[in-house]
Design brief:
This protein is mainly α. It folds into two domains: about 325 residues, Serine Threonine Protein Phosphatase 5, Tetratricopeptide repeat; about 70 residues, no CATH class. Helix content is about 45%, strand content about 5%. It is built from 18 helices and eight strands. The longest helix is centred in the first third of the chain and has 27 residues. The protein is globular, with a radius of gyration of 22 Å.
């Protein structure tokens, strides 16, 4: 990344921040003179915006996972991500908008001089703040590895001192993320504080409002996610990591969910609402694979996922890759037309599926069948259909002889509004069996994203070396953990 760009923050701690771009190498009045917590607020919102958006310029995984289909401009549905330079935006969203803010937040925390009245408390406060910031970094770096494979890591986000960072091996990055996350979790002192005399960190934390026990649970749940991801590529580390996470305490209900509560006004409304409703465009309808599956299996969540077509009372999805007349197919459900729909970072439904995998693979974390039922029930509850879960589970029981199909199929349905997570489940478990789009530019559904064109322009030697190391910079090149 040639230029290091950072967001300018405005607003107060009780509201989200809007941002523009600025070059701190040229601007001596950078927003980094602010307090750390405003940078954390900004990073959290930028992270949630990226993970949850359906904007075709930056996150097309609802299309890749065949949940939605574009109506008019179908290039992204057919895996043409180069016209809009989608990978450039993914780098900008994560390396610049999220990670640069977190790096600078750490610098400000480390540089802070406590006032006399807080000298004794500051070491624990500092430790807790740094642990939270680092957990957010771990989450973001995992997204980048899962998306591209090898990535800038050890030399990344050095804020101007290195404009051409080398790329690190994805497996090595994962191992390091596991180590640093375990240390972060250990560093959280739930008996300590989080606010300094000049910085109300709790109010600025839009995920857990400064709850240290909440961050500890999230950290362990993220550790479980890291462990499960490498189950096929490094089984011993995967089992050890997953067991540690489970023993230390992962999410046990939706009350532990990590979410960002969006607000009713711009620029703080849900990014799906921004692209579906506020844009005054009708760019998306339901995808035929998911709608057909839910229709065939009498899944009551379909009424929350989608709208019926006109007055027919029917749910109809369009074939993947084909244009669609908006009026003839099911639009996304009411959640997409609601500005305040929370943005999901991680939830109990996701974690319960990981527990199912841990049970199936290694016999840890409880009964696989119970965890599977908990995951499905949690999904139905998330969508306001708790009473329908038991009957659904009876007709879709856990199958120990092909647990990958059981988990993969049901996680695909449940992760409907968590497309990045769904993409990981599908690549790891190979279920459901998804066929490529009708006019696809490649012969299969993508298993990674290409490196950004901007990297070839400004960091060419390093990105070319990374492309060679992973076996080619292709949408069909599997990343290191996608082994089966």
């Amino acid at each position: 990344m040639k230029k290091i760009i950072v967001p300018i923050l405005i607003g107060t701690l009780t509201l989200f921040t809007s941002c523009a771009s600025d070059d701190i190498n040229l601007d001596p009045h950078s927003a980094y003179t602010t307090i750390p917590s405003t940078l954390v607020t900004n990073a959290q919102k930028e992270l949630s915006d990226y993970v949850n958006t359906c904007n075709v310029n930056e996150n097309n995984f609802r299309l890749t996972m065949q949940y939605w289909q574009e109506t008019t401009y179908v290039e992204e549905s057919n895996y043409n991500f180069t016209n809009r330079n989608v990978s450039n935006q993914i780098y900008l969203d994560n390396y610049v908008n999220v990670l640069n803010s977190l790096v600078k937040a750490k610098e400000l925390i480390n540089a802070y001089q406590p006032v006399p009245s807080e000298v004794n408390d500051w070491p624990k406060i500092k430790q807790n703040q740094l642990a939270i910031v680092d957990i957010l970094q771990v989450y973001t770096y995992q997204i980048l590895v899962d998306t591209f494979g090898n990535i800038p890591y050890s030399q990344a986000n050095q804020l101007g001192s290195n404009v051409a960072p080398a790329y690190d091996d994805g497996a090595g990055v994962y191992a390091n993320l596991i180590t640093r996350l375990q240390q972060d979790i250990a560093n959280i002192d739930t008996g300590g504080g989080i606010n300094s005399a000049s910085d109300d960190f709790s109010s600025a934390d839009k995920f857990y409002s400064g709850s240290l026990s909440g961050w500890k649970t999230f950290g362990n749940s993220l550790l479980l996610k890291l462990g499960i991801a490498i189950a096929d590529s490094n089984p011993s580390l995967a089992q050890q990591t997953s067991a540690t996470a489970i023993n230390n305490g992962v999410m046990t209900s939706s009350s532990d969910d990590c979410k960002l509560q969006y607000l009713s006004g711009s620029p703080n409304w849900n990014p799906v609402y921004e692209n579906v409703k506020a844009s005054n465009r009708n760019d998306f309808v339901g995808g035929k694979p998911l709608i057909d599956y839910m229709n065939a299996n009498n899944d009551s969540r379909i009424s929350r996922y989608f709208k019926t077509v006109g007055t027919t009372g029917n749910y109809i999805g369009q074939a993947i890759g084909q244009p669609a007349a908006f009026a003839n197919f099911s639009a996304p459900g009411n959640f997409a037309y609601t500005a305040t729909t929370p943005g999901i970072i991680m939830n109990y439904t996701e974690v319960a599926f990981y527990l199912t995998e841990a049970s199936a693979r290694w016999g840890i974390g409880g009964s696989a069948a119970v965890n599977y039922a908990n995951a499905i029930t949690s999904s139905f509850t998330d969508w306001g259909a708790t009473s329908d879960a038991a009957a659904y589970i009876v007709t879709h029981p856990y199958n120990p002889s092909n647990w990958k199909q059981s988990v993969g199929q049901q996680a695909w349905v449940a992760m409907y509004n968590q497309p990045l997570t769904s993409w990981n489940f599908w690549r790891r478990l190979d279920y459901p069996v998804l066929q490529p789009a009708s006019a696809a530019t490649i012969s299969s559904v993508p298993v990674r994203m290409n490196y950004p064109a901007s990297e070839y322009q400004t960091n060419g030697a390093n990105v070319s070396a990374a492309a060679s190391a992973i076996g080619g910079d292709l949408l069909t090149t599997k990343i290191f953990w996608d082994k089966q």
